[in-house]
Amino acid sequence: MATRAIDSRDTVPAVTADGRRRWFRGQAFWLVAPALLLLVICLGLPLAIVTLRSFSEPQWGWQNYAWFFGTPVNLTVLQRTFAISAWVTLVCLIAGYPYAYVMTAVGPRMRLVLILCVLVPFWVSGVVRTLAWVILLQDSGVINSAIRAVGLSPVKLIRTQTGVVIGMAQVLLPFMILPLYSVMKTIDLRLMQAARSLGASPARAFAQVYLPLSLPGVYAGAIIVFILALGFYITPALLGGPRSTMLSTLIQNQVLSLLNWGRGGAMGVVLLIATFVLLALAAPLSRQPHKTGSRR
Amino acid sequence: MKQPGRILLGLYCLLVAVWLVAPTIVVVPMSFNDKKSLAFPPSGFSWQWYQNFFTNPEWSASLVGSLKVAVVTALFATVIGTLAAFGLDRMKSRVSGVLRALLITPMVVPGVVLAVGIYAVYLDTRLVGTMTGFVLAHTMLAVPFVIIAVSASLEVFDKRLETAAASLGATRLTAFRTVTLPLIAPGILSGLLFAFVTSFDEIIVALFITSPYLKTLPVQIFSSITRDADPTVAAVGTLLFIVTSLVIGAGLLIGSRQGKR
Question: Do A157 and A144 meet the contact criterion of CB atoms below 8 Å apart?
C-alpha cells in the first residue's frame, strides 16, 4: 500500500507534481463524500437518535440505564448473550481451525470443494437457513428421528440454548474459517518440517511453531464471530425459547411491542458499547506483525 | 503426519463440511411435502408449494418487492462504493485507513440497534414502508461490500498503466474508461453481486420498516415461519438455492475463462 502510493507520486511529472498532488487529494475526498454522507444519514443519525432517546424518554436522565442494570432479568439476558456468543465462538474455532488447516494442505481441486462448502451457506437466505435448523432440530426433526432410529431417547434441542448455539455456530462458521485460512496459507509448512528435523515432537512443533503463527487468524476470526453473535436476532428468535432470549430480542420487544424507546435505546447503547469496546481491544491482536511492510 | 492422523483429520473435515451444507440441502425434500407440515421425513410428493409460491399474491408481491429493492440498491451501492474505493486508493494511507474503518462500520453494528434507529428516523420522515426507505438503508449496508471488492482489485491494478495512457495522449477520462475500468471490472461486478445479495437477504432492518404495501421476501418468509408450518418456505429456499447456484456457477465459468486468456 504505502510503497505503491509513493510510486504513483513519483511518476507524476516533477513540474506539476505539487499542484497536481493537492488537486488529487481534494478530488479523492469528493469521491468518498457520497459514501460518507450516506453513512451519516443512515447510520450516524439513527444511532444518535437511539442514544438520545435512551436519555430523554420518558424524561431526561439516567433512569433507563438504572432500570436496565437494576433489573435482574436484564442482567441475566446480558450475561446469557455474552455466554452464548462465547460458546458459539468456541464451537466455531474448534470446528474451523482443523478445517482451515486442511484447506491449506490439500490439492487445488479438493481446496475448491472445501471452499465451496464454506460458501454454500451464503447462497441461501439466512432466514431459510434458520428454517432448515428448525426442521433439523425440532422434536420430530431429522436429528431426533435419527436418534430414535438408533434406539436412544430423543433430546430436546429446539427452544433450548444448545439448539441456538448449534444454529448460530453454523451460520457464523464461514466468518471463522475465512480469516483463519487467509492467515494459514501464508505459513510456510517447511517450518514444521524444520522443527521436526530438530527433534520436536509433532505436538511440540505444532504448539511452538504453527500455532503462534496462526494466532492472528484465530483472533481475527474469533472477534468477528463473537461480535456478530452478540447482535444476532433472527436465529435466537426462531430457534430459542424464553430461556434462551438474547439482548437483541429484548430490544426489539421493548421498541415494537411495548413502544418503550427509552429502555430499548438504553439496551441498544449497552450492546453498541460492548461491541465497539471489544473491537477496539481486539484490533491490535489480529494484526500480523511480520507482514507490515507490504502485502505478500 | 502419520496415516491414521490424516484419516482422522479428513473425517473431521467431512463432518464439518456436512454441518455447513446439510441445512441448505434439507429444505429440498421438505418442499415436496404433500401435507402442510415441516415434520421430517416428508410423507408424500407434491408440487403444490411451488404452485402456491407463484400464485399466492402475498408471496409473489414480496418477491417482486425484494427484486425491485435489490436491483436499485445494487446499482446505487456499486456507484457509491466504487467511487469511494477510488477515493480511498488515492489518499494518504493514514487518512484512508481511518476512513476505510469508518466506512465498513455498518458490517459490525448490531442489526437490531441499527434497525431501531432507522425505524425512529423513518417514522419522523414518513419513510416507513417506502421504496426510498428500503433503498437508503440497504445501500448503506451494501456499500462496505462494494468498497472491499473494488479495493481488492485496485490493489493489484498497476497505476503506471494510467500514466502510460496519459503519456500517449489520453485524457484522464479516456484513460479511465479504456484502461482502468476494463481491468477492475471483475471487482466492480463482484461488488454489484454482493450488494444485490446483501439487499435481497437483509431482514432485520426490513422487519422494522416493512408495511403491508411494501414487503420483502425475507420478511414474508420470517412471518410465515412464525405463523405456521408452511412448506412454501422450503420451496422458496430450494428455488433460491438453485438460482444462486446457477449464478455462481456461471460466474465461476466466466472467471476461469477470463483467467485462461
Answer: yes
pLDDT digits (tens, 9 = 90+) for A48-93: 999 999 999 888 999 999 999 999 999 999 999 999 999 999 999 9
Q: Provide the domain limits for residue B109.
A: 58-217
Are residues B91 and A47, on separate chains, in Cβ contact within 8 Å? no
- What percent of chain A has a predicted confidence (pLDDT) above 70? 88
Tell me which residue in B21, B40, B121 faces A46 most closely, judged by beta carbons: B121
The verdict on A2 touching B (C-beta cutoff 8 Å) is yes
pLDDT tens track for A125-150? 788 888 888 888 888 788 888 888 88
- Give residue-wise pLDDT tens across range A210-261: 999 999 999 999 999 999 999 999 888 888 888 888 999 999 999 999 999 9
Range A62-290: architecture per CATH: Orthogonal Bundle (1.10)
Given the C-alpha cell 462494494, which residue does it identify?
B146
Distance from CA of A33 to the nearest CA of B (A): 7
Whether the Cβ atoms of residue A268 and residue A54 lie closer than 8 Å to each other:
yes
User: Model ipTM?
Assistant: 0.87
Q: What is the pLDDT, as a whole number, of residue B97? A: 87
Q: What is the mean pLDDT of chain A?
A: 85
CB contact under 8 A, B225 and A24: no
CA distance to partner chain A, nearest, from residue B254 (Å): 16
pTM of the model: 0.86
**What CATH number should be reported for the domain holding residue B79?**
1.10.3720.10
Distances (CA, A) of B221 to B69, B165, B217: 16, 51, 6
Domain count for chain B: 2
Please list, in sequence order, all residues whose beta carbon lies within 8 angstroms of the beta carbon of residue B181, skipping any fewer than 6 positions away. Answer: none
DSSP 8-class letter at B214: S
Please report the pLDDT score of residue A8 as a whole number: 45
Answer yes or no: do A231 and B245 touch at CB < 8 A.
Answer: no
Contact A124 B241 (CB under 8 A): yes
Q: Whole-angstrom Cα distance, residue B82 to residue A31?
A: 9
Residues B183, B256 within the same domain: no
**A68 interaction partners in chain B (CB closer than 8 Å):** none
Residue A122, min C-alpha distance to chain B (Å):
9
* Nearest beta carbon to residue A141 from set B40, B147, B200: B40
Of the CA atoms within 13 Å of residue B155, those in its CB half-sphere come to 12
Residues of A in contact with B218 (CB under 8 A): 125-127
Residue of chain A nearest B115, judged by CA positions: A46
Q: Give yes or no for residue A25 having a pLDDT over 70.
A: no
Q: Say whether both B198 and B238 belong to one domain.
A: no
For residues A173 and A121, what is the distance between their CA atoms, to the nearest angstrom?
Answer: 9
